[in-house]
Amino acid sequence: MKRVRIDGAASGVGALRTVWVAGTRVQERFLTWEPAERMTFVILNSSTPGLASMVEDWVLFPDPEAGGTRLEVTIGVEPASFLRRLPGLAQRIVTRATRGGDGLASCFPVPTQPNP
CA nearest 70: which of 79, 59, 80? Predict the structure, then answer.
């Protein structure tokens, strides 16, 4: 991300933000907001040609073997009509725009597990 603008409430379900990534601008709305555990957001508007819609789900898990946290990111994309015929190109565009997640898990605390 090159720049982030908060468009209303700064956190929580329903929060909006606009981000500039890899030369594009997208506005996102948060669907899930669980501090230090999970966040899910959907793209509402985008300057990215060929992108009809996109959802990202970021989940943090304790990683006892590594002594830290593991980040799992799931991305769902619906390409615009002309990219539907070129799924490999659509995948490369999304992969390039969303790279850089490596190491983000180290920025978050390990989620606490409830005691049974």
Answer: 59
